[in-house]
Structure formats: structure tokens, C-alpha cells
Amino acid sequence: MRLGLLGECSNGVSKGGDYFGEGYPFVSYSDVYKNIELPHKVEGLANSTDEDRQRYSVEYGDVFFTRTSETIQEIGFSSTCLKTIPNAVFAGFLIRFRPTTSALIPEYSKYYFRCNNLRSFYVTRMNLVTRASLSQSLLRQLNVTIPPVEEQYSIVSYLDEKCGKIDKMLEGKQKQIELLAEMKQRIIADAVTRGLNPEVKMKATNIPWLPEIPEHWEEQRMATLFTGDIEVNKDFEYKRAFKFNYGQLVPKNEIGEPEDYREVYVKYSKIKQGDILVNGLNLNYDFISQRVACAPSDGIITSAYVVCRPRKDVNYEYYTYLFKGMDSMKLFHGMGTGIRLTLSFKEMKKQILPIPPHSEQHDIVSYIKERSAKIDILTSKLQQEIESIKEYKQRLISDVVTGQIKVS
Questions:
Q1: pLDDT at residue 340, as a whole number
Q2: Cross-strand pairs, 133
Q3: From 117, 135, 345, 401, which residue has the greatest number of CB atoms within 10 Å?
Q4: Residue 106: which of 82, 77, 86 has the closest Cα?
Q5: What is the pLDDT of residues 50-64, one digit of tens each?
Q6: Range from 205-209, 294-298, 336-340 carrying the lowest mean pLDDT
Q7: What sign does the CA torsion over 262, 298, 369, 292 have?
Q8: What pLDDT was estimated at residue 255?
Q9: What are the DSSP calls for 222-280, one per residue?
Q10: How many CB atoms lie within 10 A of CB 175?
């Protein structure tokens, strides 16, 4: 039967920015999009009222759907609540389906509504909509196939066992990726601070975070190697804007023409190929990682980031790796100022850095590139395996809940 006959649909709370950040539990878009089962404890908070908490409550058996996004492909993902979250409210970008019948058990809903076969129903009917948005009326039209309750329990038991094994396999693959990432960070940190010769004689330094360096290396303040005097794009010379993306700078995918962004882009900083950028915002949040990136070409970026422009004859590749090594050791966190620990070039230029001979800098860069390339290949293979396993898991769920696989 149609979903609308099985329960009620409601959109979530929609408020201004002051409403969020503290208060009572708040179920976000990402909580639903990333999880087939709603987390029992969510990170978001909202200053909800008694009326809000009653109207937008999150209870056992509720199924939440992603309602709106920039792309149709992210619409209609579901997450089922298997444990009531007291005093919680949910985001306006979500739709809550609350069953009014016992014909569907929540544990079965967890698997059933995440089925790709169902999502195709929304996607094909939203192609004519200007904005990617799932409406309550469309969701209510969804045809739902309901097995007998005892068969739902059998399906849940079967999928819990099979998916549990698959999830353990995925966890193992992800752990391997994390170990490879740690190995890569260690290779970079060791090479840029100790060189490539394990037998080299060491000497004490004046660098607080680096007790010793090879005896033939030098030390200099960062100000002698880099300048922070960066021009603003006030003449609108550059129209290609970049953004940070996990330790890289990638072009911003803006909709429309560059002229549409003139008022914003004229306030951006000009960057040149080889500039080293550091994301020095909100350093009190440790979960923000990979703060260092090298500019792949000339362009512009928001002035919120620190731009370190290499002076003449400075090997920017070596210092990019040095800064990435410092980032992995969380050294930039101690350089920020203010309540939000924001980093500026004024603070960074005071830092003392290790200076290997130019020829050795070149050798270090070549070594890191070679070792990193091998690790990246292994990581890519593991990521492909993870995607294949995820596809198998999703296909298994779809086949079971649609009756293509008999479960006894």
C-alpha cells in the first residue's frame, strides 16, 4: 500500500543560526544521510522550546528521509530511529515518517527504506523539479510492500547477521587505510626533520618542537624564507577561486558566471603557483586535519587563510612537506591566538625552521614522492574494495527486502 496510509509525515524545524549550537539534542541532515540507523547520541544541539520538542520529537520507530540537497542523488536517504532520543528535534532538511500501524516493525524499516529500488522512485519523479527537493506528498505516494510481521523478523535476523560480517570487513579495510595514512605522515615527518641518512650525526636546536637536527643543517626564522604580503584581488584580475579539500586546493564549482561573484571575489587574496596555504581557522577543534595545501596555479582564495609566499630560491615543495609534517603533529594549534585560536602569518613568521642544504631538500622531496606514490596506490585499491563491498551490501539488502532472496 502507499506509505501515506501507514503513518504521518512532517518536515523538521527551520530556524536561524542563533537557534543552533547549544541546548537540546538536534538530529542533523548528516546524521540521517550517513547512517542507516539513527545514532542514539547525536552531536548537534538546538535551543528548542517545549513546543518544538513536542512537535519535532524523535521517537522509536520514526524514519527520517533527506528532503533537500544540491543534487538529486542525495535525496531520499533514510535513517530509522531504534531508540527514542529524549528532548530531541530534527532538521528542516529532513522529513519524519511516523508509523501509525504495527504492520511495519522499526528494525525492518531500517533496511527496507534504505533500499535503492525505493530511492529510484523519488529520483525519477524529481527530474522536473527546479530544486532537488522531496515533498511530503511525493513521499506519501511511495508504494510499500509489506511482508507478514514474522517474516519481517526473519529478514531482520538474516540481514543483521550478514551485514554485521560485512561491516567488520569494512572496518578492517578502513583500519588499513588509516594505518597507511599514519605511515605516510610518519615518512614525511621523519624525512623533513631528520633527513634520509639514519646514521647522520645530530645536534641540538633552538626549535621548541624539534630537539635535534642533522649536524650540517641550519636554522632560520620563517620570515627569512617566506613573505605574507599578499595582494587583494580588488582589480578583479583573477576569477578562478580555490577552496581547501583535505590537504589540497581545488577549484570552487560556482554556478553561473565569474562576474556574478565580483563583489565577493574582489575581497579574496591573490595566490601564485607554489604558495603554501594554511587553514588557521578554529584551531581549538582537533578534528580539522590536513590544514596545509600548495597552490597548483595562480588564482584567488578567501582571505581567511594564511598565505605563505616563498622567497627567491626557496624550495616550496620541501617546505610544503615540512608544514604538512608540522600539521600532522598538531603544531599549528599552539600558534593560534584569540578565543577561537586563529592563526595568522604574523604568528607563523616567528617560527624557527630546519634548513637542509638545497641538494638534500631535493632528495627529500623525491624520496617522499616515491614512497607516497606507493602508499597512495595501496590506499586506492583498498578504497575500491570498500566501494565494491558497500555495493554488495546494498544489493544484498535490496534483494532480501524485495523478496528476491528467500529468507527462512
A1: 58
A2: 68
A3: 401
A4: 82
A5: 999 999 999 999 999
A6: 336-340
A7: negative
A8: 75
A9: GGGTEE----B-TT-----BEEE-SSSEEE---SS-GGGGHHHHTTSEEE-TT-EEE--
A10: 11
CA distance 331 to 337: 13
**2: which strand partners?**
143
Burial of 293 (0-12, 13-18, 19+ CB in 10 A): buried
Name residue 155's beta-bridge partners.
Answer: none
Rounded to two decimals, the pTM is 0.78
Cα–Cα distance between 204 and 198 in angstroms, integer? 16
Residues 328-380 have pLDDT tens digits of: 888 877 676 665 567 889 888 999 999 999 999 999 999 999 999 999 999 99
Q: Are strands 20-27 and 89-90 parallel, antiparallel or unpaired?
A: parallel
The Cα 132–Cα 137 span in angstroms is 15
**Domains and their CATH numbers in the chain:** 3-146 (3.90.220.20), 149-199+357-408 (1.10.287), 218-355 (3.90.220.20)
d(CA 163, CA 170): 10
The total of other beta-carbon atoms located within 10 Å of residue 118's CB is 21
At 46, list the grid cell. Answer: 538546538
